[in-house]
Amino acid sequence: MTSSPELLRPGSYVYGTWHSHPDGQTLYDAVYGRPVAVLSSEGVDFAQALAYGRQKGAALRRSTFHERARALKALATHLMERKEDYYTLSLLTGATRRDSWVDIEGGIGTLFSYASMARRDLPDERFLPDGRVERLGKEGTFVGRHLLVPREGVAVQINAYNFPVWGMLEKLAPAFIAGMPSLVKPAPQTAYLTERVVRDIVASGLLPEGALQLVSGDPGDLLDHLQEQDMVAFTGSAATAAKLRVHPNIVARNVPFSTEADSLNASVLGLTVQPGDPEFKLYIKEVAREITGKAGQKCTAIRRAVVPRALVEAVTDALRAELSRVTVGDPARDDVRMGALVSVEQRERVRQTLSNLQKEAQIVIGGERDLLGGDREKGAFLDPTVLLCPSPLTASGPHELEAFGPVATLLPYDTLDDAIELTKMGRGSLVGSVVTHDRAEATELVLGMASTHGRLLVLNRDDARESTGHGSPLPQLLHGGPGRAGGGAELGGLAGVRHHMNKVAVQADPTTLMAVTHEFVPGAEVQEDVIHPFRKSFDEIQVGDSLLTHRRTVTEADIVNFAGLTGDHFYAHVDEIGAREGIFGKRVAHGYFLISAAAGQFVSAAPGPVLANYGLENLRFVEPVGIGDTIRTRLTCKRKIRKDLRPGETRPTGVVEWRAEITNQDGALVATYDILTLVERARDAHDPQPELPADGPQSTDAAQA
């Protein structure tokens, strides 16, 4: 081992300090085989690291979803400004600029996505009310509701080598939004890139102390010190996952363990597709891209190309032509499209698997090509390779052996049922794809494959322009799969946040439950004021503020005029004979008339802090209202949602959600719905300060003006 000062020495960031060790595992450049880093976790106290995360996590849990989202967005901006440093390091892993874009900017983009989702869909609270309020007693004085609260432990995240940036950030983002600190353990081969990103995160000071720790090197006895509130998320081989899952401490303490493991993903070319169709070209390009992207080192790559038997020769010829244009070599060169595998050791593992696959399949596309830079022996290069398994329904190798490199196997099929069966023989996959323009065929394949896949892509001429492709997990959708794929549930939008929270059922009287959840609960005590609620600013309105309106008797003229105004002459409203024969037995008012009449009852007409109607949700008509019935409306503040100022906006606002309940003369509920109003609020510390004129205020009066 060399002690050259040029070597990178990735450190571990634990219990608030950086730790490094002069000796350790030597890591080599994937392209030329030169030593690039020395890695060691020697001296790290794993028990202390976990205890530190749990203790410091209290500050993170005390923040709200929106505060965490703002921090995550600021962090994403900070990292994006430094991305070129990450691209430079990524070249050492064998990745091209295009490959690194998925890892680096894809990872940072995940931070942006989770920050946006949290601000849009989560309350500005430390907890998340889940589902509806359940009435548990006849009189409504005993109710229940589920809440989600942060787990009071550490999310231990053990990542694979192939995506050293995205792999970390896609786990960090939902955990952080949920209020759970992370301890990241990257794979050694590319840990120096992960460490560089973490150094920038720590230096930024944008995350609370303890929210992120890093272990560079061997994990030691880390798992021995896990407790019940901790979690583990593992990405790697199914064999390693199986060993970790039954770790005695994990089993004894029932520590949640999530896995994203091996996946022999399949892509099916539909029976209806012909060589001249756009879908045929799309299929060839997609398979070729998945073989060569990241040199095939993607958990979502296409390993099995399931094609109609009659098209095997055409697909082979087209793939050969497409792959012949892929240049291999030093990823720092602009003319190189595919770089190296992460290490020589990884290349040898792929070669061994390829040899085993050839027991039931033969190579139809392969052979070494000239390298454009790089070292064929010391570097970790392997050329794109395609095999053909003529009898895939009776073979086992293509469905059991994953060559984690630029390798795929063609599997011929005769019927759609055979194609579905072939995809299922992988025993569970992260992703599958179907390429066809025939909707009936797509439906049969999707529904047939759905039970054994975490994500399914239907690719055709209509969505190709916007499609992110077979191998691209998205923050909004599930990344995980059943069976062999590990049963994990990463990303998936806010499901990834909920995964890091504890679900508790809270039972109480309505008023107490309202106090706990900060949301109005039907049956809770309300506060009525001489000041109309629409005359109050966002800051002045409180959950439970309520208005009971004056009464209004519905007349025949109301119904006739509303029908004339809207053009809605449905018989139940305007046809006396037809209405008597209908389900109500009489003419009834339009449902939308009731909503309009209720608005007339509760609005405050003069200009004020309420700026606009922002929307209407959860509308339900309960009882009919006929001619001569009398209605009144109770409007109650249900919850408040602060809005950030957008670029160009100068007027701070928030959204107030109101529960509207329309009742008749007997007190029976006839309609209920939620109204969203945009309400002016005071400027606060989170708002950008207004810009002063270039020459500044001329006087106190001018400044006030």
Written description of the protein model:
Pfam families: Aldedh, MaoC_dehydratas. Residues 45-445 form the Aldehyde dehydrogenase domain. Residues 682-705 are annotated as: Disordered. Residues 543-644 form the MaoC-like domain. InterPro entries: Ald_DH/histidinol_DH, Ald_DH_C, Ald_DH_N, Aldehyde_DH_dom, HotDog_dom_sf, MaoC-like_dom, PaaN-DH. The chain is α/β, with parallel strands linked by helices. Helix content is 31%, strand content 23%. It is built from 21 helices and 30 strands. The chain has a seven-stranded mixed beta sheet with strand order 15-17-18-13-12-19-20, with helices on both faces. Strands 24, 25, 26, 27, 28, 29 and 30 form a seven-stranded mixed beta sheet that branches. α5 (166-178) links the parallel β7 and β8. The longest helix has 25 residues, at 97-121. The chain is globular.
Short description:
Keywords: Oxidoreductase. This protein has 705 residues and is α/β, with parallel strands linked by helices.
Structural class: alpha/beta
Give the DSSP E fraction (strand runs of 2 or more residues): 15-25%
Which stretches are poorly predicted, pLDDT < 50 over at least 5 residues? 1-5, 696-705
Residues in helices, as a percent range:
25-40%
Specify the overall morphology. globular
List keywords for this structure.
single chain, 705 residues, alpha/beta, 7-stranded mixed beta sheet, 21 helices, 30 strands, disordered C terminus, Phenylacetic acid degradation bifunctional protein PaaZ, MaoC-like_dom, Ald_DH/histidinol_DH, Aldehyde_DH_dom, oxidoreductase
